[in-house]
Write a structure and sequence with these properties.
By secondary structure, the chain is α+β, with helices and mostly antiparallel strands. About 20% of the residues lie in helices and about 40% in strands. It has 2 domains: about 1-80 and about 245-265, Immunoglobulin-like (Sandwich), CATH 2.60.40.2250; about 90-230, C8orf32 fold, CATH 3.10.620.30. It has helices at about 110-120, 125-140, 155-160, 165-180, and strands at about 1-10, 15-25, 35-40, 50-55, 60-70, 70-80, 90, 145, 165, 185-190, 200, 205-210, 215-220, 230-235, 245-250, 255-265. The strands form 4 sheets. The protein has a 5-stranded antiparallel beta sheet with strand order 3-6-1-16-11, with no helix packed on it. A hairpin with a 3-residue loop joins strand 12 and strand 13. The relative contact order is 0.25. The mean pLDDT is about 95. It comes from Aestuariivirga litoralis.
């Protein structure tokens, strides 16, 4: 299946922007189940961007620009061909050792309740069975509610509150996996909900390392493994590490950001 994607981030400022340096995780990586047909990024300073592949296999672009009086837009768009392989990720180059993804970060630090969650789901099950049980349990216990959390909400906070969005579902799943000794990573990308449908937001899920199978995706927000309705863009330890756009600026007081994402099934 081919998916057409357009992701625009628009910034407005009350005063001129003197200088900005931004790191972009906006370019999908190719692997066995995903091939980029066409892709482009339009942004100030992109013609001089520093492009590299990081240790996690992510395509990264560093851009700098300045002396901007008006609004700024960063647009990533293109076409990606995806095959449904039940979430199994093969053929993705990464120089980082798998054990790196056992490291807990502030958003994914496991509290006693999260450790108990992990113990109960993996008791008497093999790793793959336990991961599916954990995904279902997180989905059941944490209601999807936009606005219930914010960018810095931790897995422990969202789990205790029982509400969150896809970022929180992924962080909770990752925290429980790492507490159980299973490497897990945070994934950003896109999701289309069905034939002829579109989405108005980027998506996030998790991947966990399964013995004799490799990395497998799990989406607790939707209680399913990624299919050909998903496009994988980047992966890291947590949401902050693979934010689509992250950086710093001078000037440009009172920043207002608007994000518009459109994902559609392309005409075959």
């Amino acid at each position: 299946m081919q998916l057409a994607i357009r992701h625009e981030t628009h910034y407005d400022y009350d005063t001129p922007l003197a200088y900005s340096a931004q790191r972009l995780h906006l370019w999908p990586a190719d692997f066995a189940a995903q091939k980029t047909v066409s892709w482009s990024i339009t942004a100030p300073g992109f013609d001089k961007a520093l492009a590299y592949t990081d240790g996690f296999g992510n395509h990264v672009h560093m851009i700098t620009f300045g002396d901007v009086a008006g609004p700024v837009s960063i647009v990533a768009e293109g076409m990606v061909e995806v095959t449904d392989v039940a979430g199994v990720v093969r053929g993705l180059a990464s120089s980082a050792p798998d054990a790196v993804f056992l490291r807990q970060t502030k958003p994914t630090t496991a509290t006693a309740s999260l450790r108990t969650l992990a113990e109960r789901q993996f008791a008497g099950r093999n790793v793959l069975e336990g991961l599916h049980a954990l995904m279902a349990e997180v989905h059941a216990r944490v209601a999807y509610e936009i606005g219930a959390t914010h960018a810095h909400t931790t897995a422990a906070e969202a789990f205790a509150d029982g509400r969150g969005v896809c970022q929180d579902h992924a962080h909770i799943f990752i925290a429980a996996c790492r507490a159980a000794g299973i490497p897990a990573r945070y994934v950003t990308g896109y999701l289309v909900t069905g034939q002829g449908a579109s989405s108005t937001a980027a998506h996030a899920w998790a991947e966990a390392l399964v013995p004799d199978l490799g990395w497998v995706g799990f989406d607790p927000a939707n209680a399913k493994c990624p299919t050909d309705n998903y496009v994988r863009v980047a992966a890291g330890l947590d949401a902050a590490g693979v934010a689509p756009i992250r950086g710093s600026r001078r000037g440009g007081n009172t920043e207002r950001m608007r994000v518009e994402v459109r994902v559609e099934i392309a005409q075959q």
